[in-house]
Hints:
By secondary structure, this protein is mostly helical. It is built from 20 helices and two strands.
Amino acid sequence: MTRDIPVQTSIARGLRWSRENLFNSRGNSILTIAALLVAAVLGFVVLRFVLFDANWGLVAINRKLFFVGSYPADEAYRIWIVVFFGAALAALTYGVWVGHLRPYLLTVGIVAVIILTFGLGLEFQIQEFEFTDTIESGGQTTVVTGIDRQLIQSGGWAPGWLYALSFGLAVPFGGPWLLLAGVFAVMAGGAFVGRELARWRHSPILRQAFGAAWVLLIPLVVVLQIGISTLHWESVLLDFVVFAVGGFFSFVIGLFLALGRFSPFRAIRIASVGYIETVRAAPLLVWLLFATFLQDELGPIGVAFSSIDLVFRVMFVFAFFGGAYIAEVVRGGLQSIPSGQFEAADAVGLNSTQKYAFIILPQAIKAVIPAIIGRFIALWKDTALLAAISLVNTLEKAKKVLAGQSDIAEGAFFEVYLIVALIYWVVSYLLSRLGSAAESRLGESPRQTR
């Protein structure tokens, strides 16, 4: 006689876990309740601000400035090509190696509905009004006239109590709205296609194809900007391009430096160590200032280097600065490899290049993926320093928007800087999730995932 074992739902498992871990004693129960109360109060304050009290108008009318700055409107298709390619690649990757379509599609659908519908029909514009004011001082009367600007909004179907949210999300129906709808459609459809490709997820050809596609995304961003002056590279676009190019080459430089520290040639070892210690001895801001202002001090080399566009000099600094730190991370991974792996590679007749390319480096990199992702996140946040050398990155653009439109800002300083912080946080969070997914997938064997 067989006995049926009841299947617990996710809610039942969650309640059981809570009883065993959060309410398993009187002290834990009190701490849990107190933490929930604090979280509820903070959540209420944040939601009330975001939905009701915030003035998102300044953000809404300057959305283009925050993301692409003064990029020519007739050349915007270059950016949309990258956005569609990146969205498709991300969706395919998720479908192949994660495959949980229900929560993914639910999240994409909710975000799409909120962004594409809440601001429909809402119109906003800056109107100018003439004013006259009389000032009396010391028996004299002075008449002052001027122009006052005010942000006016009208229309929209969203309820009035959601004014702040709908105003912040307002996207005029037309080209931008249709393009955003297309991006969400690609994100949904790509996940389905990726799910169908999941049966070949362990194929070396598929892995190499996806790896090559992600690597090619970086030169695609740069190539599409050919013909566009770097003076128009601003805001999030500038931060992303500098991070992508600098991060890619910092990883390559870091690999060579780490291998150089294990070289049997003493000169290569000394050069690698000297490079790493010299670069790490000064903060990134100092190197950026060197790249900006050093010219004649370095003779012909300095003059030649200063003749390069400042944006490309900054990419070079990000690459060689990040490479020094990546090298130390990879060196830690190389030291964690058992000596038996080196001996086994030598026993089967592999030369040094084959040994490191196929045996040692893959294991070393897999062991230090969290640390590498941490360095990339730090490098992404370091793009905020570009404002210190007069490049108009996201932070500098926020300052310019507030300075140039202070009369209609109406105290929206916190809202503007909150958007800047949110941009940096979103990219950092996505990098963190990417690292976690890569770590978990690389740790699985084909037999475990079947």
